[in-house]
Design goal:
The protein is built from 17 helices and 20 strands. By secondary structure, it is α/β, with parallel strands linked by helices. It has three domains: about 90 residues, 3-Layer(aba) Sandwich (Rossmann fold), CATH 3.40.50; about 210 residues, UDP-N-acetylmuramoyl-L-alanine:D-glutamate ligase (3-Layer(aba) Sandwich); about 140 residues, Mur ligase, C-terminal domain (Protein-Tyrosine Phosphatase, Chain A). The strands form three sheets. The protein has a nine-stranded mixed β-sheet with strand order 7-8-6-9-10-11-12-13-14. Helix 5 crosses helix 11.
Length: about 450
């Protein structure tokens, strides 16, 4: 039993799912004296109301700096709260340890961890690993947790040594870890992302690589071998490096050769048999195969069955419907340009692309070659609509429509499509100009598609 926090004063900043669960765990199970603070007013804050009912001290509607005059031994912060937040900054200056909720989860977990991070492909890879480990399993269970939307601490409370925790870890979460040590760490890839939070690419990479900071020779680092930069990052682990590659044979890892996916020389599945489309999903499958094999899954047929039947994760290249010989895909998770590049490469064309969202000051010129090769028509909306429209014009796309909202964009994209087209919602921007989350945005897209099909039946 963890006694680290008994009779210690702990401040929890931010009451999203992970913060609320961390506060409850610390007070009810670990014996801490918890103060929880959240900027949302109390009457609009069900999490705060529930914590107050459980006896947790709650401060809402503000985050007073005067809190830092109290004798806190630890701060647990919501991963999305930046380190230049006044309360967090003051805690740092007072040398109070600051962690995120996965660190707490790791401390209490009795089950071994597989941790997955990367810029793209985390959720698909995480889900595939859990599915593979649960296939034909006779003892224990592989549990999904983390950035996938399930607080790791909630799962860690119930797991046993016979179970496995398969945990998606974002850079925001990893930045607040000190002792976290996955037995198997997976890096899907690293591109430039979240620089508004991390300030520099170097900081972003450093946060990601905390996933291997505490590994030892008994642990494993599954890493994408298709970039010299990512190969170089493998030197940061003391664990055993197990590469995966779509482009070359890596005999001690997972790789694609002559249309077949292998692990350490043994064929697992033909690439054409994998249900979810795209070269990026070949990479996700290779990463998942390597992690599952290292975690003890001996049945290659079980692994192959998962890859043949797995339909994809919602909002990530999610097949929605076919309407009059047009296939419609929801890729709302494409909150950056790299994700949309990956999506476009998955379809030879022709594509009718819907894009747009929060303006973070980026331009979209990197998309031009793919727009030229894959896209026949575009509908753009949101804060980035003018920037995306300018990029479309540079790419020579004449069938271009500019609107304000996603609700306007969907029917126009459907009308612009022709039989045989793919209608792809891959925004290349965050959702926060019009939606709270990319999930909410993706659900709206699906609802708009279904409404259009209802009004325009085949």
């Amino acid at each position: 039993m963890v006694t680290t926090y008994r009779n210690k004063k702990v401040l929890v900043i931010g009451l999203a799912k992970s913060g609320a669960n961390a506060a409850r765990l610390l007070q009810d199970k670990l014996g801490a004296f918890v103060t929880a603070t959240d900027i949302k007013p109390f009457n609009e804050n069900p999490a705060a109301q529930a914590l107050l009912d459980d006896g947790v001290r709650v401060i809402t509607g503000k985050q007073p700096l005067a809190l830092m005059d109290e004798d806190f031994s630890l701060v647990v912060k919501n991963p999305g709260i930046p380190y230049d937040n006044p309360l967090v900054d003051r805690a740092e200056k007072k040398h109070i340890p600051i962690i995120t909720e996965p660190e707490l989860a790791f401390e209490i977990s009795e089950a071994p961890w597989i941790g997955i991070t990367g810029t793209n492909g985390k959720t698909t890879t995480t889900t595939l690993i859990a599915e593979m480990l649960n296939a034909k399993r006779t003892e224990g269970k592989a549990y999904l947790a983390g950035n996938i939307g399930i607080p790791a601490s909630a799962v860690a409370e119930k797991v046993t040594p016979q179970d496995t925790m398969v945990v998606e870890l974002s850079s925001f979460q990893l930045a607040g870890t000190t002792h976290l040590r996955p037995h198997i760490a997976v890096l899907t890839n690293i591109y430039s992302a979240h620089l508004d939070y991390h300030k520099t690419r170097a900081n972003y990479i450093a946060a990601k690589m905390k996933i291997v900071a505490n590994q030892n020779a008994a642990d494993f680092f599954v890493v994408n071998w298709d970039s010299p930069e990512w190969q170089g990052l493998s030197h940061q682990t003391k664990g055993q490096v197990v590469p995966f590659s779509r482009k070359q044979v890596v005999s001690n890892g997972a790789y694609l050769k002559d249309g077949e996916l292998y692990f350490q020389g043994t064929p697992i599945i033909a690439a054409e048999d994998i249900r979810i489309p795209g070269a990026h999903n070949i990479e996700n499958a290779l990463a998942a195969i390597a992690a599952a094999k290292l975690a003890g899954q001996k049945d290659n047929d079980a692994i192959a069955h998962v890859l043949k039947t797995f339909p994809g994760v919602k909002h990530r290249m999610q097949y929605v419907e076919t309407w009059q010989n047009r296939k419609i895909y929801n890729d709302s998770k494409a909150t950056n340009i790299v994700s949309t590049e990956v999506a476009l490469r998955s379809f030879p064309g022709p594509v009718v692309l819907i894009g747009g969202g929060l303006d973070r000051g980026f331009t979209f010129e990197k998309l031009i070659p793919l727009l030229k090769d894959h896209v026949r028509a575009m509908v753009v909306y949101g804060q980035t609509k003018k920037l995306m429209a300018a990029t479309a014009k540079q790419a020579g796309i004449e069938n271009l429509t500019v609107v304000d909202t996603l609700d306007e964009a969907v029917p126009l994209a459907m009308h612009a499509s022709r039989p045989g087209d793919v209608v792809l919602f891959s925004p290349a921007a965050a959702s926060w100009d019009q939606f709270h989350t990319f999930e909410e945005r993706g659900d709206r897209f699906i609802a708009d598609v279904n409404q259009f099909i209802k009004e325009n039946p085949s």
